[in-house]
């Protein structure tokens, strides 16, 4: 599958998990959509003070950039300057 298909699957999974957990708990999830300055963004969803869960979170992020961070290339210098993409 390509990245767009994986992203669609993960967003649908987040939707389904939140719907099922909310149905069991009775409390709604509150969503905070965010953007990453270097590229990408995500959705953080939190349920608080429910009947079953004191607090629960189901999050999605998709980040990308033109160059990998120094922490990722410190032990693999051949990756310096390469682009990256990650989601989950």
Automatic annotation (TrEMBL):
EC number(s) from the headed UniProt entry = 1.3.3.3
Listed PANTHER family: COPROPORPHYRINOGEN III OXIDASE, MITOCHONDRIAL, OXYGEN-DEPENDENT COPROPORPHYRINOGEN-III OXIDASE, MITOCHONDRIAL
Q: Which UniProt keywords apply?
A: Heme biosynthesis, Oxidoreductase, Porphyrin biosynthesis
InterPro entries in UniProt: Coprogen_oxidase_aer, Coprogen_oxidase_aer_sf
Membership in a protein family:
Belongs to the aerobic coproporphyrinogen-III oxidase family.
Q: Which Pfam families match?
A: Coprogen_oxidas
Segment Disordered: which positions? Answer: 68-88
Its source organism is Acinetobacter baumannii
Q: Which domain of life is it from?
A: Bacteria
Q: Name one GO biological process term.
A: heme biosynthetic process
Quaternary structure, per UniProt, is:
Homodimer.
Q: In which pathway does it act?
A: Porphyrin-containing compound metabolism; protoporphyrin-IX biosynthesis; protoporphyrinogen-IX from coproporphyrinogen-III (O2 route): step 1/1
**Molecular function via GO:** coproporphyrinogen oxidase activity
What protein name does the entry list?
coproporphyrinogen oxidase
Q: What class of enzyme is it?
A: oxidoreductase
